[in-house]
């Protein structure tokens, strides 16, 4: 959804933008290519992705700054690098195609690999740690909360009985055997939601998103835009609620006859309905089928 991102950010000459999840540099490349006189700060915890972005963006090297870090440190990084306040901020949430397609990173059950799932390979906790050392109740809660998996307890028990589990395909087989395969043309693999849940827990994604949204709004100039791409309901719900809260002009308790809070909205919601990919884009990039874009503008 590159054109929608560039349009949503309102890329203009002599402005500065922050790509909080630069990945391989696709969106940043589009921003730089759209205008000659813009600068972009790219942030990502994944060193491998950053190196690909660095090579890809070499022709724009004088207009980009790439930093290996988490966007939860956005305020400090943008200040140090001279990108605060910013004219636009982009958050492309979730796992990247590079991570999914690299078996050694352990994000995908379709490619045998170690149970890792860390965005930052230097992180402390892996998916194998959760799978092999969490109590059954704790593991079931993770799978239910972050994967929205109704069969979480059955899956957690099956995992506990099969320990130790060290490989992605091994875990996927255990899950599939415990719940069976759902029939139908649009049926997803029975391990999909569990793998999502483990990835979110390993990287503390939802807490990071909530923190990152606050920081992104904080560093925006008046009329600056924040564009967020989410890929599953938990992320999108969190973004939607955060944007609504930031756009409120009153936070008094319901039933209060006269507003006394003196609260001021921080943003204006640009698109009341989420922006979704076209059928043409989904055909070219199937992963985009679940993407949703939400945009706010600083007031």
Write the layout of secondary structure elements.
Blueprint: H1 2-9, E1 15-19, H2 26-34, E2 38-44, H3 47-56, E3 64-68, H4 74-81, E4 86-92, H5 97-101, H6 127-133, H7 136-147, H8 152-162, H9 168-179, H10 192-203, H11 205-219, E5 220-230, H12 233-247, E6 267-269, H13 279-284, E7 292-298
Parallel strand pairs: 1-2, 1-4, 2-3, 4-5
Antiparallel strand pairs: 5-7, 6-7
Helix pairs in contact: 1-2, 7-8, 7-10, 8-9, 11-12
Folded structure, characterized:
The chain has 299 residues and is of the alpha/beta class. The chain is 43% helix and 15% strand. The protein has helices at 2-9, 26-34, 47-56, 74-81, 97-101, 127-133, 136-147, 152-162, 168-179, 192-203, 205-219, 233-247, 279-284, and strands spanning 15-19, 38-44, 64-68, 86-92, 220-230, 267-269, 292-298. A 7-stranded mixed beta sheet has the order 3-2-1-4-5-7-6, with helices on both faces.
The gist of it:
Helices cover 43% and strands 15% of the residues. It is of the alpha/beta class.
Question: What is the overall pLDDT average?
Answer: 94
Taking the sheet with the most strands, its summary is: 7 strands, mixed
| Spans of at least 5 consecutive residues with low confidence | none
**Shape label:** globular
Number of helices: 13
Strand order of the largest sheet: 3-2-1-4-5-7-6
C-alpha termini separation:
26 Å
Cα-based radius of gyration, to the nearest Å: 20 Å
How are helices and strands ordered from N to C? Answer: HEHEHEHEHHHHHHHEHEHE
**Strand portion, in percent?**
15-25%
Bin the helical content: 40-55%
């Amino acid at each position: 959804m590159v054109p929608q991102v560039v349009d949503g950010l309102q890329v203009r000459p002599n402005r500065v933008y922050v790509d909080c999840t630069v990945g391989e540099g696709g969106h940043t490349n589009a921003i730089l290519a759209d205008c000659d006189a813009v600068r972009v700060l790219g942030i990502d915890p994944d060193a491998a992705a950053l190196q690909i972005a660095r090579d890809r963006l070499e022709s724009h090297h004088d207009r980009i700054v790439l930093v290996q870090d988490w966007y939860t440190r956005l305020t400090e990084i943008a200040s140090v690098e001279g990108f605060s306040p910013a004219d636009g901020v982009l958050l492309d949430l979730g796992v990247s195609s590079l991570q999914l397609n690299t078996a050694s990173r352990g994000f995908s059950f379709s490619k045998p690999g170690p149970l890792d799932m860390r965005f930052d390979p230097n992180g402390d906790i892996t998916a194998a740690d959760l799978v092999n050392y969490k109590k059954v109740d704790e593991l079931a809660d993770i799978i239910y909360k972050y994967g929205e998996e109704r069969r979480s307890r059955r899956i957690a028990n099956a995992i506990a009985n099969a320990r130790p589990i060290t490989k992605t395909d091994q875990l996927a087989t255990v899950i599939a055997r415990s719940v069976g395969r759902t029939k139908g043309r649009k049926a997803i693999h029975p391990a999909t939601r569990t793998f999502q849940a483990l990835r979110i827990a390993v990287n503390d994604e939802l807490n990071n998103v909530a923190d990152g949204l606050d920081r992104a709004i904080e560093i925006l100039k008046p009329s600056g835009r924040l564009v967020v791409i989410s890929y599953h309901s938990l992320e999108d719900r969190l973004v939607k609620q955060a944007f609504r809260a930031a756009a409120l002009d009153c936070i008094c308790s319901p039933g209060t006859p006269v507003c006394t809070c003196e609260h001021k909205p921080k943003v204006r919601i640009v698109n009341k309905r989420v922006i979704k990919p076209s059928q043409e884009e989904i055909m070219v990039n199937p992963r985009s089928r679940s993407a949703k874009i939400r945009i706010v503008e600083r007031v």
